[in-house]
Amino acid sequence: MLVPLRNQGVAMSVETQRSIATMRMPGGLGGLLPALILIGLFFVVPVLALLLRSVTDPAPGLQNYAALLGDGTYARVFFNTFLVAAVVTIVTILVAFPVAWMLAIMPPALASIVFGIIILSMWTNLLTRTYAWMVLLQRTGVINRALMATGVIDQPLPLINNLTGVTIGMVYIMLPFMILPLVGTLRAIDPMTLRAAALCGASPFQAFRRILLPLSLPGVAAGGLMVFVMSLGYFVTPALLGGTANMMLAEMIAQMIQSLLNWGLGSAAAFILLVVTMALYALQLRLVGARRATGGV
C-alpha cells in the first residue's frame, strides 16, 4: 500500500507515487550495451585483427611466434624489456615511498601544494620532458658540468644512450603513477598504530618493517603493477635516452612495422606483449584476492 509522502507540508499524490513505483531501470544487458559496443569496437576487434594478422602474414601458421621465441636477437630484446621495466619499477617504488609518506603526514595545505606540483608534471608533454632530460644528461649537460665543477668527477659520466639514462627518464615519468595509490593507502593507516608500536618498544625501523610496510603493500602492489605494465610498452623515452644495446620491445615493434614493413612479426610481438600484460594483471588480482581471503591486509 502506498502512503502519501509529505515534505515540508507538500503532499505527493498517490498517483504520482504509483507512477514512480512502476518505473523500472533497464534490465539485463540493456544498460551495458553501449559500453559493450564501445569495448568491442575499440578493444576486442583490434586485438582479434592483431592476432589474425600474426598467424596469417606472410603465410598461415605460427612461424612468426617461432621466430620471436627462437631467435637470440629477439630474446635479448625481450630480456631488455623486462629488465628495464623491473629496474624502473623498483627505483620508482624506492623514490615514491618517502614522497608519499611525506604527503600523508604533512599539513593538508602544504600537501595540496606539493601534490599539485606532482600532478602538474603529468600535464607537461611527454616528448618535451624527455628532451629536457636529454639536455640535462648529455656529456656537456648541467648534471655533468655541476659534478665536474664541484670536483666530484674528473670526466663526464655516461648518463645517456644507456640503461642509466632510460631509468632516470622513465622513473621521473612514472613517479606520479606510483605516488597516487601510495598516498591513498598511507593516509588510510591509523597513526595510532605506529604510536602504539613505539610505546611497546619498537624502533623506527621495526615499526616500518613490521607495521607500515605490510599495511602499505596494497598501494605498493597497485602502483608497482601499473608502473611495470606501462614500462613494458614504453617507446618514446627508451628510444631517445637509450641506445641500440638497450632496445625494448615497443621500439622493435615500431621498427618492424615502419621500417621493415613486417606486419606479421610486429603483430606477433605486440600480441605477446599484450598476453604478458594481461597475465600480470590476472596474477595481481589472484594475489590480492588470496590475501583478502586469508584475512591479510
TrEMBL record:
This is Binding-protein-dependent transport systems inner membrane component. It is a multi-pass membrane protein. CDD domains: TM_PBP2. It comes from the Bacteria. InterPro entries: MetI-like (IPR000515), MetI-like_sf (IPR035906). Its main location: membrane. It holds the Pfam family BPD_transp_1. Belongs to the binding-protein-dependent transport system permease family. CysTW subfamily. The chain crosses the membrane at residues 32-52, 73-97, 103-124, 165-186, 215-240, 260-283. It comes from Mesorhizobium metallidurans STM 2683. It is found in: Cell membrane. Keywords: Cell membrane, Membrane, Transmembrane, Transmembrane helix, Transport. The keyword Lyase does not apply. One of its GO terms (cellular component) is plasma membrane. The keyword Iron-sulfur does not apply. One of its GO terms (biological process) is transmembrane transport. SUPFAM superfamilies: MetI-like. Residues 78-284 form the ABC transmembrane type-1 domain. Gene3D superfamilies: MetI-like (1.10.3720.10).
